[in-house]
Amino acid sequence: MPDANILGIESSCDETGAAVVRSGQRILSNVVASQIATHQPYGGVVPELASREHLRAIVPVVRQALAEAGQTYESVDAIAVTQGPGLAGALLVGISYAKALAFALDKPLIAVNHIEGHIHAVLLEQRKIEQRKSGDGGLDFPVLALVVSGGHTHLYLARLQENLWSYRNIGHTRDDAAGEAFDKVAKLLGLGYPGGPIVDRLAPHGDAHAVKFQTSQIKHADRRDFKQGNRHQEDRQLQAEEDGPRFDFSYSGIKTAVLRYVETQELKPAIEARRQALAEIEEPTLEDFLRLTDGQTLNLVASFQRSMVTDLVMKTLAAAREYEVRTLFVSGGVAANRELRATFEREAGIEGLPVFFPSHALSTDNAAMIAAAAYPKFLRQEFVAMDFCADAGMRLR
Ligand code: KG4
Ligand code: ZN
Asked: What is the number of the ligand 1 atom nearest to the C-alpha of 15?
C-alpha cells in the first residue's frame, strides 16, 4: 500500500483542528485550537461565535500542523476535511479553506464524516497498542462502536471490506446526547462549561448511591423517522436497511430529574453562590471546585454520572450480545470519562469482549481522526469535486 501524508482539517463544532497523519496510522502532528473560553460565559456553544473563531484560527492552525509535521503545503498528498455532521457555519469555514488549498495546490480533496473520524480515532490508538504487543493490528469483526459526545450518542456496527468501511446504525439518542446531559447538568449546578470533565473529576468525591435516578427504557419506535415530509424517502429507505433490534438512548429525563431534585432540595441559593465564586477564579482547580461544592451536591453529581455510565454501558453490551460482535469501540468526548472507561473495561471483560478507546487527546474533537479516516478513501481514490457542500445533518453508512 502506498504511503500518504494526509492533511486533515476539522471545524464541525468548537475546536479548530489540523493534523498530518501518515497512511492512516502515524500522527505527525495534531493541533487543536479550543474555543472553550469564548463559549464559557454562555454555558454552551454559540454557533455564530464558533464560525468567527474558526475563521480566526484556521490559517495559523494549519500552518502549525504542517510545520510540526515537517511538511509543507506542497509535500502533503491529499487534503481531508469534515463534511458533517456539525454546525453548518462552522463546517463551512473548514470546507472553504480545504477547497481553496486543494484547488491552489492541485491536490485531491477527501470529505470525511465526523462520526467516522471518531471511530478512526480508536483505530489510531488500537494499532499503537497492537504494534507495541508486536501484533499486526488485526481486528475481529463485526465491531460495535459507541460514539458518545456533546452532539452524538450513536451505536454503529462497523465492517471492513477491501478498504471500504461500512456502518449500520443500530441505536441513537431520541433527545439529548450524553455529553449534552453532562454539560446541562453541570451548568444547572453552577459548575461551568464544559460539564463533562468537571463532573468526571468531582464524581469520585460523592456517594453514587445517594440519589436514585430512573434511566429510560425505550420500547416504542422512533416516530420522527416516519413523519411525512421529514426527508421521508431517505428515512424510510434507511429504516428498511436498519431493520433489526434497536438500542436507543434518551437523556432529557435525567436532566429534568436533576432539576427537580435541585428545586425540591432548595439547592438554588448555594448554586448561585458557587457560580459567582467560580466566575471570579480565572482557572479554578479541583480544590476550588471541592471547596465550593457541598456534600449533597457531590452526591448528586456522583449519582448522575453513575446513572449515565450504567445506561451507556448496559445498552451497548446488550447490543453487542444481540449482534454477536467481536470487538467494542468507545469514542467521542464522553469516552474520556474515567468511570465510563473503567466500567466498560470491567463489564466487557466479564463477557470476554475486547474494548478499545482513543487516547484522551483523541477522544475529543481533533483533525488527526479526520486524516486517519480519509486514508482508506485515499486508497480507493474516493475524492470529492470542488462543489461538494457541508452537510450539517450528515448520516454515516
Ligand atoms: O467529541 P467532542 O469534543 O465534541 C462533539 O463532537 O460534541 O465532545 C465534547 C463533549 C462535551 O459534551 C463534554 O462535556 C464531553 O464531551 N466530555 C466529557 C468528558 N470530557 C469531555 N464527558 C464526560 N466526562 C469527560 N471526562
Ligand atoms: Zn465530535
From this structure: 3
Whether residues 99 and 168 share a domain: the answer is: no
Where residue 1 falls among pLDDT bands split at 50, 70, 90?
Answer: confident
Q: Determine if ligand 1 sits within 6 Å of the CB of residue 149.
A: yes
Q: What is the CATH number of the domain that holds 204?
A: 3.30.420.40
Does the beta carbon of 10 lie inside 6 Å of ligand 1?
A: no
pLDDT per residue as tens digits for the range 346-370: 999 999 999 999 999 999 999 999 9
Residues 80 and 192 in one domain: no
Ligand 1 atom with the smallest distance to the CA of 363 is 1
Give the pLDDT confidence of 7-66 residue by residue, as tens digits: 999 999 999 999 999 999 999 999 999 988 898 888 788 999 999 999 999 999 999 999
Neighbours of 161 (CB within 10 A): 8
Task: Kindly give the distance from the C-alpha atom of residue 10 to the centroid of ligand 2, in angstroms, as a whole number.
Answer: 10
* Residues 75, 178 share a domain: no
Q: Order the strands of the 109-113 sheet from edge to edge.
A: 26-34, 15-22, 5-10, 78-84, 109-113
Based on the fold, state whether residues 285 and 336 are members of the same structural domain.
Answer: yes
Distance 61 CA to ligand 2 centre (A): 18
Q: Are residues 193 and 339 both part of a single domain?
A: yes
Tell how far the Cα of 182 is from the centroid of ligand 2, in angstroms: 15
Q: Which three cell numbers stand for residue 123?
A: 483505530
179 CB within 6 A, ligand 1: yes
Q: Are residues 337 and 205 in the same domain?
A: yes
pTM greater than the 0.70 cutoff: yes
Provide the residue range defining the domain that includes 177: 143-218+246-353
Distance separating alpha carbons of residues 53 and 14, to the nearest angstrom? 8
Mark whether 270 and 294 lie in a shared domain.
yes
Our answer on whether the CB atom of 182 is closer than 6 Å to any ligand 1 atom is yes
Closest CA to 95 of 113, 77, 83: 83
Strand order in the sheet with 143-148: 164-172, 153-161, 143-148, 327-331, 355-356
